[in-house]
Structure formats: structure tokens, C-alpha cells
Amino acid sequence: MSDIASLADKSAVALKKLIDTREVSPVEVLAACVDRIETLNPKINAFCATAFERAHDEALRCEQAILRGEPRGILSGLPIGIKDLEETAGILTTYGSPLFHGNVPAQDNRLVARLRSAGAIVVGKTNVPEMGAGANTFNPVWGATGNPFNPQLNAGGSSGGAAAALAANMVPLCSGSDTGGSLRIPAAKCGIVGLRTSPGLVPSERKLLGWTPIAVVGPMGRDVADTWLQLAATAGQSAGDPLSYPFTMAASIDSQPHTDLSRLRVGYTEDFGVCEVDDDIRQVFRQKIARLRGQFACCEELDLEMDQAHRCFDVLRAEAFVGSLQKAYEENPDSLGPNPRANYEMGAQMSLKECVWASAEQTRIFRRFQQLFDRFDIILSPTTPVSAFPWEQPYLTSVNGVALENYYRWLALTYVVTLTTNPALSMPMGRDHLNMPFGMQVIGRFRGDLELLLAARSLETYCEATPDLCRPRPDLAALSYSQVDLWSPVTHPPLLAGGVVSTAGQPAV
Predict the structure, then answer these.
(1) Under DSSP, is residue 497 helix (H, G, I), strand (E, B) or coil?
(2) H or E stretch including 418?
(3) Is the peptide bond before 458 cis (omega within 30 degrees of 0)?
(4) Is 67 exposed, middle or buried (0-12, 13-18, 19+ CB in 10 A)?
(5) CA–CA distance, 199 with 83 (Å, rounded to integer)
């Protein structure tokens, strides 16, 4: 591998240092990332629409600014993938839906604008399920995203394209978003880090119901330091998000004191008392806890009261889908795929009484959960209840022979935490019983995002020095020679989007 090609394998923090010290050029970094995308994207379909020419122009301008000694943003020169639920000026934004198969926004939304203002170079859009509904990244516009560890298995969702792109070292940073686990689940499946931020910490303008705390946007990276870096570029108040609040933080986690693991009080749960979890994953989780518990001041199993969490999430989630899909459904119900349509119809049948109950129940769950942090500093759980399964299987239908009520019930380990509003991240912690990445969900105290990231950094440091707990890496050389081809222009006719758009694949009509 050439020195330039190896740039794609470096972390965002490492690349930032190389760019800032003029040891490498942003143009060289971008070239390495584009080469990696062109080599591996046909195997896993992580990127959908791309804008390589525009990105090259931006990298060149960044290089010239460096040579002139001009002030620059903290992400200056770093390539980034943007989830295809976020509006990006001049780049095809489909939301994975045929309704938007030719949609090229005129402007960036607030999240993308902040990333670009910080100097990040948008390489393209990462794949999602249709309208972000579900945790298996597949849609009728771009097709399926495969897992870099095994392209025949799913990469999670809805930020599946982002997680797969990071795991395959296509770009050093990607944006994500999370309602019921859309950021944490793909992070777990692909062996990278994803942070579900406290509601309002990173402003989001695309929520029609701006006051709901269940949907957030947040950073994804290969490690905790990269995740911190992206958060620093995006956090803070915005008039476009009524839940946002003023927030400042250091640009680099390296400037922050290390958390002493031996002083951490840790609680853990296999299932929050209400989630179906595969017996093998339970055993893997127990093994991870056994390896970790000696590092902490205490490590105790939790007894939780969340009996109404499933129904509460059903109602709150359905409210959000009614808000976002009402216009499309009323114009033509058949224009929506099965998952978005099911979500809308579920919500449309609910009563005001149910909505009031759900909001009150979430408040009760929130208050009970916060009491745990009188005794503990962080809480650990598995991120997902099963190992990665084939992407041809739309969703998980049962666990340990127990049938699941609906297509998203298998996300329960993450959505029960969504209800609490606490920040939570998924971090890689070795492999599971099927030799796929295992994701540990680490939950922090109310609005304790930075404290959580600092604790996760110390956990990461310990795990990276422990062979069976360190972050797994996919075999990219084997992936490049894989016969799996998730995207074929022959089977997916091209659609011209216009503008400055180029595409990694071609969207199906």
C-alpha cells in the first residue's frame, strides 16, 4: 500500500495533525478517500450520491488557505460522509425514498452547514433505509448496504451507510442520527463509535415536531477522539432547534484529563428488564463484564422498572412519523414503502389520550432512570440483541423463539435509553460468538455527554490493550476481492440528478 493510500486508514485526529503541520495536503487526503470509496463501495454500497469534483475543488482551496496561513475550522480538510437524511446543497438527497429520487437541495441544513463551516469536505451521502425507518439499511432507490466484515450481512441502520463507510476506512468522519438506535446499532454492527447526544446538544432542523426529545443528530467515528472532534464542531445553540442550548467544549479530547477507571461506579443490565436478547449475546455480554469489572470501583447488576417502555416508545415514535409523512400519505399512500406506511398508519390510529399517556410515562421513566446516577457514573448494556443477520432479511422477527410484536421491537435495547434522554454511545468491544463486532452501549448521566466521552476514552484505552476486547477491523484486502456486488448499474438503471452531482452507484428509478 502506498503512503498516500494509507492516509485513508488514519484517524480524523491523526489526519488533522498532518494537515495542520503541512505534512500532507487536503488534496492528498481526499484522493486517498476517493480511491478507497471507488475500490470498496461496489462491495458494500455505503455511499450513494457523491460529489468528488466539488470535494476536490474544496480540498484545493483548503490547501491554498493553509499555504497562506489563513485561520481555518477544526475539521479543515477532513473528508466527511453525510447521512442521506440531511439536506446538502447541490448533492442528491433522496432519504432513500422514490418520492425524492431527484431531489437536489438548494442549501445545507444546519448540521451540514456547521460541519462545512468547520472546514469538513463533504464527499457524498451515506445510505439509509427508506425515510430512515428501520435498522436494516435497504431502500428502493439505492439498494442494500452490506457489512464490511461480511457483505452478505446487514450493517444496521438507519445510519448503516455511515457506519460501513467508517469501518471500511472510506472517510475519517460521518454524520449520524438516532431515534430508536439508528446511530448506535450500526456503530455496534460495524465496530465503530457512535454517540447519541443529549437532545438539543447538536441542533437538528429537520424535525417537524421540534420539541420532541426522541430524535437527535450526532457524530460517528472510528474511535472516541474522532467522535469528540466532530461533536466540538457541531454542538451549541441554534434558533432552528427549540431544544438547543449554549454549549462550549475543547476542540480536542487530548486536552482533557483522563477518567480513572478505578474510580468509576458502574451499573450494568443485559436487557433493562423488558428487552428480548439472544442467549448467545447474553453470554458474550457476561464475558465482557467479567473482563471489565476488576477495573472499576464497583460493577453491579441493575434492577430496572421499565414495564411500559415499549408502548411508550410506540406512541412517541408514531407521533413523529405522522408529523413527517402525513402529506405524502394523504397524497398517495402507495408512494410510501411498507415500513414508513406502517409507522404512519399506526400513529394515525392513536388517540390524544394515548399521546398524553405516553408523554407522562416518558417523564416517569426519565425521573426513575436519573435516580440510578446517584449510585453510578455510567451504565453498560449490549447495544443489540443479536449478531448481524443477512441484509435480505428485512428485520428480526423473533429472539430465542419469542416472536417480536413489530419490525422495530428488536431495537429495544437502544430505544429504552432514548426514552430516558440520557446520552449514550456504542463502542466496539471485541467480537461476538459469530466473530462479528460486539457493541457495548455506554450510558451517561443526564446531559453528561462530555463526561461520558471521557469515560469511554479510558475504556477504549484499556480495551485496545486487551486482545479480546480491542476494536475489530475488517479485512479490507479480502473485501476488495469479494465476489459480492451489492450495486449493479445493469440491474439498477441510472437516473440523472443534475447539478454538480456524481454518484458512487446510480439510483434506481
Answers:
(1) coil
(2) helix 412-420
(3) no
(4) exposed
(5) 18
pLDDT, tens only, 142-191:
999 999 999 999 999 999 999 999 999 999 999 999 999 999 999 999 99
Q: Which of 203-207, 406-410, 468-472 ranks highest by mean pLDDT?
A: 468-472
Q: For residue 509, give the nearest of 494, 499, 498 by alpha carbon.
A: 494
Q: CA 51 → CA 42, 114, 132, 183, 442, distances in Å?
A: 17, 18, 22, 23, 35
Determine the residue type at 483: Q
Residues with Cβ within 8 Å of 200's Cβ and at least 6 positions away in sequence, in order, are 213, 216, 241, 243, 244, 245
Superfamily the domain 12-503 falls into: Amidase signature (AS) domain (3.90.1300.10)
DSSP classification of residue 399? E
C-alpha cell at 404: 417480536
Task: Render pLDDT for 89-133 as a digit per residue (tens, 0 to 9).
Answer: 999 999 999 999 999 999 999 999 999 999 999 999 999 999 999
Answer yes or no: are the C-beta atoms of 112 and 120 closer than 8 Å: no
Q: How far is CA 76 from CA 19, 29, 50, 501, in A?
A: 8, 11, 19, 22
The residues that bridge with 456 in the sheet, in sequence order, are none
Q: What's the sign of the alpha-carbon dihedral 232, 155, 420, 263?
A: negative
Domain ranges of the chain: 12-503
Say how far residue 419 (Cα) sits from the centre of its chain: 18
Q: What is the rounded CA–CA span in Å between residue 464 and residue 477?
A: 22
Among 287-296, 326-335, 359-368, 386-395, name the one with the lowest average pLDDT: 326-335
Range with the poorest average pLDDT among 21-25, 227-231, 488-492 = 488-492
Question: From CA 357, how far away is CA 355, in angstroms rounded?
Answer: 5
Distance, CA of 298 to CA of 276 (rounded, Å): 26
Q: Are 112 and 126 in contact (CB under 8 A)?
A: no
Whether the Cβ atoms of residue 139 and residue 96 lie closer than 8 Å to each other: yes
Please provide the average confidence, as pLDDT, over all residues in the chain.
93
Q: How far apart are CA 184 and CA 189, in angstroms?
A: 9
Give the C-alpha separation, 357 to 337, whole Å.
29
* pLDDT for res 423: 98
